Amino acid sequence: MRSLQSLQQRFAEKLTASPHLGVVLLDQDAHLVEISQMACKVLGINRAEVMGKHIDQAFAGIPEDNRLVQRELLAGVKVHNQAISWTNSNQRYELLVDSNTLHNDEGECIGAYVLFKDITNLRSFEQKIERSDRLAMIGQIAAGTAHEIRNPLTSIKGFLQMFLKSFTESGMERERSYTEIMLTEINRINALVSEFLLLSKPRDVQYSLVDLNTVFAEILPIVESQALLHGIEVQYLAGDLPLVVGDTELLKQVFLNICKNGLEAMGKEGVLSIDHHVEADSDRISINIHDNGPGIPLYVIDKIFDPFFTTKDEGTGLGLSVCQKIVHDIGGQIRISSKGYGTTFHILLPYL
Ligand SMILES: Nc1ncnc2c1ncn2[C@@H]1O[C@H](COP(=O)(O)OP(=O)(O)OP(=O)(O)O)[C@@H](O)[C@H]1O
Ligand SMILES: [Mg+2]
Hints:
The chain is an alpha+beta fold. Helices cover 45% and strands 24% of the residues. The chain has a 5-stranded antiparallel sheet. Helix 8 runs antiparallel to helix 10 (319-329). The radius of gyration is 28 Å and the shape is elongated. The structure holds adenosine-5'-triphosphate (ATP) and magnesium ion (MG). It is an enzyme of class 2 (transferase).
């Protein structure tokens, strides 16, 4: 009997010490009898400060409706395998929660427990699969239609260029300017179709050794001229950058797209800064592009890499999904930090 008791005790100790399981145990008056380290970490509280306290006191900083541990628990509100998103002050978690009441032999409620597992990695894995499914679908549509769109565009463009020439020669200013507008619009459609083609798989990617210093030397004038138009300052602090393996043109596109997003986010004033650091204990370099725009709200951040997700009137929403594909294809990753104000895109690339 005694060894059984100590086995049960050991088991309880093991569960509360587990870094993978959140355990919260309440008595019938909603005082915290036990709370595991993992639960404290996720809830953003200090174990020593909350042990023995009433939950209203222990979680006073969190609005009542948003609490993970609620008083209704003791009234018998059960939860089983409920997936919830939880954000403490510095991290976001996806949790799978179970909770229930505990009763004595007479059937009276003597407390309640909440157990949860951190399934953030699992969820992001699921989301990655969803995203690659969607990209594959778009790829198929793109491959099937891009040529069909491009061919007629090429002949329309050719004729318009002829018109432009004749109108210019015969001094028909109004017709000339209209034709010019039509040509600009056609170029826009062409650019869009090219982005589609990039999202679809088969394409001649020219992998070679890329000097990132040259890449930036070539795109900075473009970024700076855009910035100047809007009174934005560009600070280039990236210094001496290493070599990476990739496609020069595609990498230019990645940095240009992300800089453009930064400029668009800031609008009329601000500072776009570009620097780099080498990731601790990894062989990747991180190019950091920071803007001091309004930041990206949490409910938007999950979607920004989705094809066609945009919050802009004139946006296609393809910019970041194309960037992500280009970076993933060379073994890199794009990370974002955006906390309420300002955004940094970290473009991590394996370097030589
Ligand atoms: N630096 C940033 N600050 C704030 N929001 C951003 C930033 N970068 C991206 N976003 C958000 O992510 C969305 C998607 O960006 P993405 O580049 O994919 O498309 P877009 O910029 O809207 O359109 P396009 O790039 O085709 O012009 C944007 O609409 C915007 O809401
Ligand atoms: Mg964009």
